[in-house]
Design brief:
This protein has 3 helices and no strands. The chain has helices at residues 68-81, 85-102, 111-120.
């Protein structure tokens, strides 16, 4: 067994560990890199919308996790009907809301329509 070696002045100098530490006014928090998601046709590399073409309906981002079985159902429905996941989801939510209204678990008139009616009167 060899004894641990000690550094001498003739050894090559090791880099100073303090060189990479920022202290005082120079200290800035490390920036986190965030994923950039394109949100326009230009950023997506798609051509601009044709002149005179109306924009589609206003949509809101909604992130959900679905069961694998549900994802398989969406795929199956899409293959059978030719609809995309967005259209399938919109139809499913509208169908479920209609069911809840029929059973009395949701008001017959959506809340935003109720608010508009009370403001008008």
């Amino acid at each position: 067994m060899t004894p641990p070696r000690t550094r001498t002045a003739t050894d090559t100098p090791l880099p100073d560990d303090d060189e990479d530490i920022k202290v005082g006014d120079d200290a800035k928090p490390a920036k986190k890199r965030t994923a950039v998601t394109p949100n326009s046709r230009k950023q997506l590399g798609r051509p601009e919308r044709r002149r005179g073409r109306k924009p589609g309906p206003t949509r809101v981002m909604m992130n959900v996790r679905v069961l694998l079985e549900t994802d398989d159902l969406v795929t199956e429905i899409g293959e059978e009907t030719g609809m995309g996941p967005q259209d399938i989801t919109d139809a499913a939510i509208a169908h479920y809301a209609a069911y809840l209204r029929r059973t009395g678990k949701l008001p017959k008139v959506p809340k935003r329509d109720q608010q508009e009616q009370t403001e008008a009167s």
